[in-house]
Design a protein that fits this description.
The protein is mostly helical. The chain folds into two domains: about 80 residues, Tyrosine recombinase, N-terminal domain (DNA polymerase, domain 1); about 35 residues, no CATH class. About 55% of the residues lie in helices and about 0% in strands. The chain is built from six helices and no strands. The N and C termini lie far apart (about 95 Å).
Length: about 150
Amino acid sequence: MTSLTTADITPPQKPKLLDRLRDAIRLRHYSIRTKQAYLQWVRRFIIFHKKRHPDEMGPREVEAFLTHLAVEGRVAAATQNQALNAIVFLYKELLKRDLGQFEHLVWAKQNPRVPVVLTVDEVKEAGRTWREEPVGSSVSQRLARRN
């Protein structure tokens, strides 16, 4: 029988970054969709920087990635914010590093939301039209027929 030496025994490996991130998200009881989104954004961040470990990167690389999303990716502001939140979570909760302020970040443009407002007369007309028109017609189609 051969005896084992300490050189023969390999120490348990430290969990990989994305596994540690997954565990940190679970520990905080984030939703499944948030977990999936955060993992995907961190993957994309790492791949964007040619698979460099986030510990080797800092605010400049985060700014470059988020600016790329806004300029070349043309993502919505909410999408860029979600990517930012995922990366900030990674650095703050896992890597225990503060990214500070982003001075040169290009933010995605937020589309202005213009509310649709009808006058009192238009609401009354729409009410009459709904009673007269078949189900399935849109409001604009109904109003167009009345004019």
